[in-house]
Write a structure and sequence with these properties.
The protein contains no helices and 11 strands. It has 116 residues and is mainly β. The N and C termini lie far apart (40 Å).
C-alpha cells in the first residue's frame, strides 16, 4: 500500500539547519508532484514547498524562499527538504504528501523544533 515515512526532524538552535527525508513506497514515486506541508502548534496547515516529477521545477512559500530547498531522488523514491537559517517560527510538524485521483496521501510527520 501507499506509504510515506518522514524522518530527520529534531531540536535545532536558531540559525541552524536540518534535512528532512520522506521515503515513499507502494506507488510510482517518479510519476507525482510531491509537496511538503507543515503545522505549527495551535495553527492550521501551511503549504511549504512543492516540486515536479523530475525535480526540475520547485515552488516555495514566500517565508521559506531562499532558506529551504526541496529535492528528490527518484531512484531512491525519496523526497528531501533542506532547511537552513531556521527560525523559531519554523517549529512545526512537517509532512510530505501527494495527490492522486483527487485523494491526498500523507506521511505521519516529523517534528522540527527551533529553540535556543
Amino acid at each position: 500500500q501507499v506509504q510515506l515515512v518522514e524522518s530527520g526532524g529534531g531540536l535545532v538552535q536558531p540559525g541552524g539547519s536540518l534535512r528532512l527525508s520522506c521515503e515513499a513506497s507502494g506507488f510510482t514515486f517518479s510519476n507525482y508532484y510531491m509537496t511538503w506541508v507543515r503545522q505549527a502548534p495551535g495553527k492550521g496547515l501551511e503549504w511549504v514547498s512543492e516540486l515536479n516529477r523530475g525535480g526540475s521545477s520547485t515552488y516555495y512559500a514566500d517565508s521559506m524562499e531562499g532558506r529551504f530547498t526541496i529535492s528528490r531522488d527518484n531512484a531512491k523514491n525519496t523526497l528531501y527538504l533542506q532547511m537552513n537559517s531556521l527560525k523559531p517560527e519554523d517549529t512545526a510538524v512537517y509532512y510530505c504528501k501527494f495527490i492522486v485521483a483527487l485523494r491526498d496521501y500523507w506521511g505521519q510527520g516529523t517534528q522540527v523544533t527551533v529553540s535556543s
